[in-house]
Amino acid sequence: MSTIFTQIVEGEIPARIVYEDETTVAFLDANPLAPGHTLVIPKDEYERLNDVPADVATDLYDTIHRLVPVVEDVVDADATTVAFNNGEEAGQEVPHVHCHIVPRFEGDGGGPIHAIAGEVPDLDDDELDAIAADIESEA
Ligand code: AMP
């Protein structure tokens, strides 16, 4: 069973497509958090960012990079929040990787990315050093 976003790519269900190239497509979110709320996806179905091959990731970022200033201009936004819900526990509902471009306006009442945190951990220097070293060694 293909995802709802693959159905958009295949033209099986309608969407307000705003950009398309060989590997990516962007369309307006059906339940916008702000005017101009846009989703950018790879055409091929990958559930999470972790699954996206490097060449597709490059194309995906190129499309995000192209669209962020355009979306801001079109809706006269002051800023944008650009984010992925990467995995179900992070709030991802559609299992087809997608980047949210959410226009932001002065006084819009929204929060920063930091607002996603529930319980914030109290990590000491040793724990931070160990985590940093582990990430660095795998990157
Ligand atoms: P997420 O929670 O990150 O998986 O976000 C999924 C997003 O997809 C939500 O913001 C939905 O409003 C949006 N969405 C779901 N179905 C459609 C659709 N058919 N066309 C456009 N956006 C959709």
From TrEMBL:
InterPro entries membership: Histidine_triad_HIT, HIT-like, HIT-like_sf
Domain HIT: 4-111
One example of a Gene Ontology biological process annotation: nucleotide metabolic process
Pfam families the UniProt entry points to: HIT
Active site: 98 (tele-amp-histidine intermediate)
SUPFAM superfamilies: HIT-like (SSF54197)
GO terms, molecular function: catalytic activity
Domain of life of the native organism: Archaea
Motif Histidine triad motif per UniProt: ranges: 96-100
PANTHER family in alphabetical order: ADENOSINE 5'-MONOPHOSPHORAMIDASE HNT1, HIT FAMILY PROTEIN 1
Protein name according to UniProt: Histidine triad (HIT) protein
Organism: Natrialba magadii (strain ATCC 43099 / DSM 3394 / CCM 3739 / CIP 104546 / IAM 13178 / JCM 8861 / NBRC 102185 / NCIMB 2190 / MS3)
